[in-house]
Amino acid sequence: MMLFNKTPILFLFGVLAFSCNQQNRSAQTLETESQEPVLFAKGEKIANDNFTGTAYLHSMIEADSLNPNSVGNVTFEPGARSKWHLHPAGQILLATGGVGYYQEKDQPKIILRKGDVIKCAPNIPHWHGASAGSTFVQVAITGRQNGPTQWLEAVTDEEYHAK
Amino acid sequence: MMLFNKTPILFLFGVLAFSCNQQNRSAQTLETESQEPVLFAKGEKIANDNFTGTAYLHSMIEADSLNPNSVGNVTFEPGARSKWHLHPAGQILLATGGVGYYQEKDQPKIILRKGDVIKCAPNIPHWHGASAGSTFVQVAITGRQNGPTQWLEAVTDEEYHAK
């Protein structure tokens, strides 16, 4: 009789425990996706030497004779950053995920998070990249009407880690 | 003795059931957030008559003498859409959430989902908006160097619902 009374309870207990475990894992997955949703494709690993560390570029819009803007999605792995550089027609950055840095010459380093927007004036040397502990994803809108990006020196570790 | 054996099991059963319920609700919340993450602010309800239905605009970048682009986040409620209009320097749209429509004059209506990108050439009449059953969120990058947007007639229900 005790066996009859307990068995269904233990069975239900086991089913419930399994079910809970499934839901818990589901919640964790969603939480991870919610923290870093993939909005635009990651694209290809950047192979040139204009970046320190690992970064990816997905080109979404190429400039042409009718619209001078190129639009690209850039993903920086933790610690990765561009070299110092400037854009002759300026640039707009839209931060879409992670935590990153942006710095203009002789200005303090700015922390960027999802939803932050930067407008960089033409010919201002600057760099951008991920923080040391997080990836960083941004959309870059770059005017090409005044010529190509000019690449300068690498961002030193001292510059990168400066407060 | 039976009471002693059963009570802890029933107590644990109750705790587990409550815990499961909490996790289930948490997963549902995350699922909703994951489907429609808020990337940029929704902004203010658009008060002019260039839109049918309810739409919101958050202006993120204003055009100036150094950079001719304005960048805004537009949120359309289900069924809401712009009038037909054209941009003298063209426009780039980045779909960031929901399901929407984009149509150029004499072209079929295109369905837009998160991650889709549109390049609209200068002076091409077009409209964009949400689908009937979903909100739609987009970033609009609009060149202002050739003059302001020219607004045309409203999108009829027949045009809106056309396959």
Report the order of strands and helices of chain A: HEEEEEEEEEEEEH
Briefly note the structural class of the backbone of chain A: alpha+beta
Mean pLDDT of chain A: 85
Strand content of chain A: 35-45%
Cα-atom Rg of chain A, whole angstroms?
A: 23 Å
Oligomer: homodimer
End-to-end distance of chain A, in Å? Answer: 71 Å
Question: Main attributes?
Answer:
homodimer, alpha+beta, eight-stranded antiparallel β-sheet, globular
Plain-language structure description:
- Two copies of one chain form a homodimer.
- Chain A has helices spanning 2-35, 157-161, and strands spanning 44-45, 51-52, 55-61, 69-76, 81-82, 85-86, 91-104, 110-113, 117-120, 126-130, 136-143, 150-151.
- Chain A has 163 residues and is of the alpha+beta class.
- In chain A, the strands form three sheets. In chain A, strands 1, 3, 4, 7, 8, 9, 10 and 11 form an eight-stranded antiparallel beta sheet that branches. In chain A, strands 2-5 form a two-stranded antiparallel ribbon. In chain A, strands 6-12 form a two-stranded antiparallel ribbon.
- The first copy, chain A, is globular, with a radius of gyration of 23 Å.
- The interface between A and B is large, with 45 and 45 residues.
In short:
2 copies of one chain form a homodimer. In chain A, 24% of the residues lie in helices and 37% in strands. Chain A is of the alpha+beta class.
Write the layout of secondary structure elements.
Two copies of one chain form a homodimer.
Chain A: H1 2-35, E1 44-45, E2 51-52, E3 55-61, E4 69-76, E5 81-82, E6 85-86, E7 91-104, E8 110-113, E9 117-120, E10 126-130, E11 136-143, E12 150-151, H2 157-161
